[in-house]
Amino acid sequence: MSKLPAELIEEFEIHTGKSAPGVPAVLPADWNIAPTKKIYIIRHNSQAERELVTASWGLIAPWSKNDGDALKSQSIAINARSESVDEKPTFRNAFKSRRCLIPADGYYEWATELAAPSKQPFYISRTDKKTLLFAGIWDRWISPSGEIQESASIITREAVSPLAQIHHRMPTFLPKERWDSWLDQGLQDVSRIREIMNVHSPAEGIVAHPVSRAVNKVSNNGYELTIPVELGEPETLF
Known about the structure:
The chain is of the alpha+beta class. Helix content is 15%, strand content 27%.
């Protein structure tokens, strides 16, 4: 994510009045976000208004006893599968009442469904260059020292064309008219929540292109990671 909080606040009509927590701290521009790092999330406050806050990527298991447990649980819970999110102990309570939207310039996926070189990454973004929004869940964990830590996971689903040509999974995208229903903390009926995720043509307006394998190393960071590269004629996608 490279956008500033002020840009996200304007783009997604986020409330900044007295009932809002204020503008969150500016996170450094990051083109290769690793698990447990801070990300922006959009959620509803107690007044059912959109607010922008930061959370660490990867949901902390509610039963974590110490910081080490929390960190370990995060690293394996960056994504929650839509098919089982309401059943898994780590995710089910958050799915019922603590849903969020996670903004991103784009994301990387590694080709498993086409004849591309091993560990070949693709950069996926919107054709109109606007911010992507992933359906997500968030939760709050209190450490033994009393520190409140908020964390979030992206909900993934079975990929559809054209993204299914790259990988069999993709983030869950929601159209604008479903954002507030998704964020509604009072909506806790699992079947109705699932209906919100059932979107016709969820990958419409999404484009992908191959990028440098430098992104495979998390220490590499910069806009250049998103620049298209050539795979060769037999392996070129789209």
